[in-house]
Amino acid sequence: MSWPAASALLAPLAPWFEAVRRDLPWRAGDLDAPHPDPYAVLVSELMLQQTQVATVVPYFARWMARFPTAASLAEADEDMVHKAWEGLGYYRRARFLKAAAGCIATEGWPGDLEGLAGLPGLGPYTAAAVGSIAFQWATPALDGNAFRVLARLLLIEGDPKARAAELRTWLAPALEAHGPSRLTQALMELGATTCGPAPACESCPLAEDCGARRAGRAAEIPPAAKRPKPKVSALWLVALEAEGHVLLHPPAAKGLLAGLWRWPALEIPDFPAQAAHGDFTAWPAWTQVYTHRREAVAPLHLHLGARFPAAEGLRWIPAGELPSLAVGKRDQRLRDLLATPGQRPLEAPDPAALMRACAGPST
Length: 363
Ligand code: SF4
Prior knowledge:
Blueprint: H1 6-9, H2 13-20, H3 38-48, H4 53-66, H5 70-75, H6 78-85, H7 92-107, H8 113-117, H9 124-135, H10 144-153, H11 164-178, H12 180-193, H13 211-214, E1 231-242, E2 245-248, E3 265-267, E4 279-282, E5 286-289, E6 293-304, E7 315-318, H14 329-337, H15 351-358
Parallel strand pairs: 1-6
Antiparallel strand pairs: 1-2, 1-3, 2-7, 4-6, 5-6
Helix pairs in contact: 2-12, 3-4, 3-7, 3-9, 9-12, 10-12, 11-12
The structure holds iron/sulfur cluster.
Iron/sulfur cluster is lined by residues 149, 152-153, 194-195, 199-201, 204, 206-207, 210, 212-213, 218.
């Protein structure tokens, strides 16, 4: 490693951050002291995994009003926790946060990085971020933004994540010198606002010493990660309604969709397109994007005259209870559509086929 000393190279970041930093609700005013509420830092870091700052801000405010302490979250009903997370996606984070709060409420905060990394849901990055921002530990937190900035600054060829251990060792003295909380957040902020995929080098405090800028290679470093082509599927997402009830899958106890109610979803190829005979409403389809796959979702509302015995894994729920149930992003969208006028579709699955797919044995 022949990089210049981090404390000198990153020195311009501290005054820059003081001048430009955004006033975010989880940010402490005094960046030289431990954070007055480490739980707020933990909540924000879990919410910010995979989610943009602007989306997180209102969720954070509501969450802190509802679960103001680790103890209150640990004691909260799991359905309430899922409901409060509704719309943020990646619901495992909510369950991890509740489990971590339980550990903190009973055993107190861990005293070192290893202890933080042992809390549910805290990988190496989140543990280091909480350590530096909440407790002022010199624990370098490298997320995608930080890797991108440092790869450009130090003109690192290839994937900078392969050099994570070296980068952490290199960065630690700079955290000591400029304040762990300040420097960690400054690096994140620079990556989020200035040194993004299209870098704005002209307004960057590190421009003078930046290797990639001087080499005219800022836009090509780090190399874009090769992602496998996402799998694409197509489905009908169906709100079946009868006698004031709607048909839903109750939440699974574990797995990615634990805690979430779901509409029945039917593979489109399973249903030959036929003229609709029932009381259908449809809305334009949309593409739901997940990390490794995509779904073309065709939303549909079918109003039936009477309920039928639901198949195993499905349950009739009073329609009035729908707003209080926690549902994932895709299913939330159909729930919202039910309140807006749709149209009778030109093509729709055969109502009888739909019912066969959703009905259990007659009793
Ligand atoms: S000068 Fe440009 S490439 Fe270098 S750190 Fe700043 S924004 Fe990024």
